[in-house]
TrEMBL record:
This is T-lymphocyte activation antigen CD80. Pfam families: C2-set_2 (PF08205), V-set (PF07686). The chain crosses the membrane at residues 244-265. It is found in: Cell membrane. It comes from Geospiza fortis (Medium ground-finch). It is a single-pass type I membrane protein. Residues 287-306 are annotated as: Disordered. SMART domains: IG (SM00409). Residues 1-30 form the signal peptide. InterPro entries: CD80_C2-set, Ig-like_dom, Ig-like_dom_sf, Ig-like_fold, Ig_sub, Ig_V-set, T-cell_Activation_Regulation. GO terms for biological process: cell surface receptor signaling pathway; cellular response to lipopolysaccharide; immune response; negative regulation of T cell proliferation; positive regulation of T cell proliferation; T cell costimulation. Keywords: Cell membrane, Disulfide bond, Glycoprotein, Immunoglobulin domain, Membrane, Receptor, Signal, Transmembrane, Transmembrane helix.
Length: 306
């Protein structure tokens, strides 16, 4: 809908609306903060809200770079550097024209909001805030699998994924054969501005060979590792031990057989020997009788002749 300035009151109304819109836009831009991202160990630049013309020098200005409004990161007054917080000594510098702040090397504690305040002849020229997001790379995740139970149907495994030394607090995710899965995650850190160690655990019932992936995500970055999980059991049924009563009966049978063999070996030869001896005696007696018979005949003959 357009305002048509057909009369002075209408014109004033349109001008008032226009000024209100411009004011809202100006406030929105003022509230919008710039965001800069950097990694630990890198060199980062934070932009300021003013650039000194080539016809002027830093000596006509006061420039304050401060963090959280309390810590002086770097400041100049009439061209001279002012005392700064000890954490930033020998790690900061500023461009004398566009007043960009350089920090190197970046540390995790540098994470936070910074403000650039510029004055000329004690008059405020501009003030602008910049948010620095610092990240530290996590180590490549390490995946381990420990078999907790095994059977012909499945292998139960306890899977552990761990990564350390990163910042900020990460998110750990996973996939099983490209299907998403959730980890039971835990984090360890000395403080909110210290490196994090993350560990994820889960219990899986593996019925066939599968591939598991663990990913650690932090501030737009990610690192991941995959591991092939192999079902360990080949369903080889171990031999079943016979029942106790079967074992006992088998032992009794074996002992009985051994006793029988022992007795047979001890008494059977005597019986055979005695049987052989009797048979031999009878044979010898028969031979003797047969030998004596002719003599008897001879005697009888002689007697008859007499």
């Amino acid at each position: 809908m357009m305002c048509l300035p057909t009369s002075p009151p209408a014109l004033r109304t349109c001008l008032g609306l226009g000024l209100f819109v411009l004011l809202c836009l100006g406030i929105g831009q003022a509230l919008e903060k710039k965001v800069v991202k950097s990694k630990v160990g890198e060199k980062v630049s934070l932009p300021c809200c003013h650039e000194i013309p080539s016809s002027e020098s830093l000596r006509k200005y006061r420039v304050y770079w401060q963090k959280n409004i309390t810590d002086v990161v770097l400041a100049y007054s009439e061209g001279n550097m002012l005392p700064q917080h000890e954490r930033y000594q020998n790690r900061t510098e500023m461009d004398p024209r566009n007043l960009t702040l350089w920090i190197s090397p970046v540390e995790i504690l540098d994470n936070g909001s910074y403000q650039c305040v510029v004055q000329r002849n004690s008059v405020l020229v501009c003030s602008e805030s910049v948010i620095l997001f610092v990240t530290a790379d996590f180590s490549k995740p390490n995946i381990t699998a420990e078999v907790s139970a095994d059977s012909c149907k499945l292998t139960e495994m306890v899977i552990t994924c761990s990564s350390h030394g990163g910042f900020p607090k990460p998110r750990i995710s996973g996939a099983l054969n490209n299907m998403s899965m959730e980890w039971n995650a835990s984090w360890v850190s000395e403080s909110s501005f210290s490196p994090y160690n993350v560990t994820g655990k889960m219990v899986l019932n593996v019925t066939k060979d599968v591939t598991i992936t663990c990913s650690v995500e932090y501030s737009g970055f990610a690192t991941s590792t995959s591991l092939l999980l192999t079902k360990t059991n080949n369903c080889v049924v171990p031999p079943v031990s016979p029942p106790y009563n079967v074992i006992t009966a088998s032992i009794i049978i074996v002992i009985t057989f051994i006793l029988a063999v022992t007795l047979a070996a001890r008494y059977l030869p005597r019986h055979v020997c005695s049987h052989c001896c009797k048979r031999q005696d009878s044979v010898e007696e028969g031979v003797k009788e047969h030998t004596k018979a002719p003599k008897r005949s001879k005697v009888t003959a002689e007697t008859s002749s007499v």
